[in-house]
Amino acid sequence: MSDLLPAAKLGHIAATRKEGDAAFRVLSVEDFANSRAEITQWEGYAPTPLVSLSALAAAIGVGEIHYKHEGPRFGLGSFKALGGSYAALRVLQRQISAKLGQEVSLEDIRLGKYKDEAAKITLVSATDGNHGRSLAWGCQRFGAPCRIYIHAEVSEGRAEAMRELGAEVIRITGDYDESVVLAKTEAEENGWFVVSDTSWEGYSEPPRDVMAGYGVMTSEICNSLGTPPSHVFLQGGVGGLAAGVVAGLRQHWGKEGPRVVIVEPELAACLFESARNGEATNFAIQEETLMAGLSCGEPSGMAWEVLSEEADDFLTMPESLVAPAVRLLARPLPGDEAIEAGESAIAGLAALIAARQDADLSAKLGLDANSRVLLIGSEGVTDPAIFAQIMEGADAA
Ligand SMILES: Cc1ncc(COP(=O)(O)O)c(C=O)c1O
Predict the structure, then answer these.
(1) Which of these, 188, 200, 213, 70, lies nearest to 135 by C-alpha position?
(2) What residues have CB less than 8 Å from 102, skipping those under 6 apart?
(3) Among 157, 341, 359, 386, whose CB has the most other CB atoms within 10 angstroms?
(4) 2 within domain boundaries
C-alpha cells in the first residue's frame, strides 16, 4: 500500500442509519430548486470543476476519485460563496416584503429595485472566514451594510478579504463561540439581522437557506456523474456542508446514493461526539486546528437532524495529515491535475488515503479497488500566506 501520507490512526464510529425523512424535510426539493434557479442567474456563475484523480486512485487502490474543486467559486475561493450570499438575499426578501406588505422577488432585489430599503437592513455574522466572505460579498452585491465578527485566531489575510468586500470586521479576543454570542447580542440590541450558517433553537431560516445554496454544488456534481459514487467523504465543521450535500445526493439518487463518511479534525470533533452519544453534543475545543473552517465545537441542530439519519461513518483525523495532503494535491502524481487547495478542503482526501493505508479500517468502510469516491474540495487558496507556508514544508513525511 502506498505511503503518500504519514502513517496515522483515524478515529472511527460506525453509525446506524435510521429510517426517516430528514433529507427531504429539513431541506425540501423546492428549497434546492429555488436556490438553484436564483444562484445560477448571478453574474459570474459557472459550475466548478469535478476533477478525476485517476493516478491517485490507482496508487491507493480505489476505482475512482472525483474531487469537486470549489476554489474558483465566484472568485471567492470556496463553496461557502453559495450559502451566505443566498441567505443574505433571502433575509432581504423577507424583510422588504414585510415592510412593503407585498412579496418582492429575489430577482428584483438583486437588480437593485429596492436598493433604498436594502441599505437600511444590516446583516451580521460570526465567522472563521469563508462564510463571512460570502455574506460580505452578498451584502456588497445586494446593497446591505455588513458586520462580521471574528475570533482571535482568524488570520489577518481572511479578515482583510472581508474588509475589501466592504464589511466592517470586528475582531474579539475570545474564541469562535464567543464571537457567535457577540454577533447575536449586538444584533438584538441594534435591530440587525444575523445570517448564520449554523442553526439553534428558534433560529432556522438563514441556515436552511445557506444549506439550500450549497445544493447548487451538489446538482452540478449529479449532472456530471452518470452513476452515483459508492462513497462520499464529507468534512464537518458545524455539519451544514455535509447535511446540504447529503440531502441533495439523497434527493437525486434515492437509495442508490453513496455511503456517507463524515470527517472531522481530532481537535474539533463535535459531529463525532454527537454520533457517539446519539444526540447533538458539543465538543470543547482546546486547540485550534489548522483546518480553520472545521474548527467548530457545536453542531448545527438542523444539520445534525439530517446526518443522524443519513451518515454511515464518522472519522476523526490528526493534524499531521493536513499539510502533506495539501502538498500532495498541489504536486500530484504524474497524470493527475495539480490543484491548489486550502487546509479545510483536504480533510476527505486525507482521511481516504489514511483509511486505505489501514486494511482494517478500509474493510470497515467498505473501501476496495472498485470504490468510486466523491470528495468535496471545499476551498481553494483562501489564505495565500498559510498556503505558501504549507508549500514550503518538506514533502517527505
Ligand atoms: C472551506 C470549508 N470547508 C468546510 C467547512 C465546513 O462547513 P460546515 O461548517 O457547514 O460543516 C467550512 C466552514 O467554514 C469551510 O470554510
Answers:
(1) 213
(2) none
(3) 341
(4) no
Atom 5 (ligand 1): residue with closest C-alpha? 293
d(Cα 285, Cα 51) in Å, to the nearest integer? 33
Q: Which three cell numbers stand for residue 320?
A: 499531521
Domain, as residue range, for 239: 11-79+207-391
From the CA of 97, how far away is ligand 1's center (Å)?
31
**Closest C-alpha to ligand 1, atom 16:** 293
Asked whether 90 and 204 are in contact (CB, 8 A), the reply is: no
C-alpha–C-alpha distance, residues 227 and 303, integer Å: 26
Q: What residues contact residue 25 under an 8 Å CB cut-off, 6+ apart?
A: none
Nearest CA to ligand 1 atom 13: 293
Classified as helix, coil or strand, 114 is coil
Note whether 308 and 168 are same-domain residues.
Answer: no
**Distance of alpha carbon 392 from alpha carbon 388, whole angstroms:** 6
Nearest Cα to 182, choosing from 134, 146, 133, 149?
A: 149
Q: Which residues line ligand 1 (CB under 6 A)?
A: 78, 80, 128, 130-131, 197, 235-242, 293-294, 296, 342, 344-345, 378-379
pTM above 0.85, yes or no: yes
C-alpha 103 – ligand 1 centre gap (Å): 32
Residue 379 pairs in a beta bridge with 78
The per-residue pLDDT for range 106-164, each reduced to its tens digit, is 999 999 999 999 999 999 999 988 999 999 999 999 999 999 999 988 989 989 999 99
